[in-house]
């Protein structure tokens, strides 16, 4: 199944300033999430973010905050009980999800979205955990639970669909 841009929402989970230094390859995760959100913006795809306990862990990194249409503060690891589903734009069933920590908040949110009937794609190279083993096990579990595991490049080119897309050169420049 292909991701359809008119059905897609990009969901970025907990890319928070105070959390990122503890994440393995945290700056790479930030950079890839920023690329994803920039591509989404070029293609008019809504970008939603979450922040876990923002009064303690602080806000999302500035680059992410600037690219999001909506940010949901949450206290559950799974963002759904804190109102995520209600805050998603209507009529879009494809959730492309990235963020931290892969094995906790990102995974629990993705699993709840699958249970709620959404089609979920997890952007593996834009997810992170403190421990890489936890991340890898979570990606395996998500795949076994029905999430499709993809990469930033897969998402970008699938959303565009062809090289004649008006944003092709801008997206290609971001990916390179």
Describe it.
This protein is 43% helix and 21% strand. It is of the alpha/beta class. Strands 3-2-1-4-5-6 form a six-stranded parallel beta sheet. The two termini are 26 Å apart.
In short, what is this structure?
With 176 residues, this protein is of the alpha/beta class. The chain has helices at 26-42, 54-57, 62-67, 84-87, 102-115, 132-144, 152-160, 168-175, and strands at residues 8-13, 47-52, 70-74, 94-100, 119-128, 148-150.
What's the β-strand tally?
6
Shape: globular
Separation of the first and last Cα atoms: 26 Å
Instruction: From the alpha carbons, calculate the radius of gyration and give it in angstroms.
Output: 15 Å
Q: Unreliable stretches, pLDDT < 50, 5 or more residues? A: none
Largest sheet: 6 strands, parallel
DSSP strand (E) fraction?
15-25%
Strand order of the largest sheet: 3-2-1-4-5-6
Compute the number of helices. 8
Structural class based on helices, strands and sheet pairing: alpha/beta
**Residue-averaged pLDDT, rounded?**
97
Q: Give the SSE string.
A: EHEHHEHEHEHEHH
Notable traits:
176 residues, alpha/beta, 6-stranded parallel beta sheet
Sequence-ordered SSE layout with sheet pairings:
Elements: E1 8-13, H1 26-42, E2 47-52, H2 54-57, H3 62-67, E3 70-74, H4 84-87, E4 94-100, H5 102-115, E5 119-128, H6 132-144, E6 148-150, H7 152-160, H8 168-175
Parallel strand pairs: 1-2, 1-4, 2-3, 4-5, 5-6
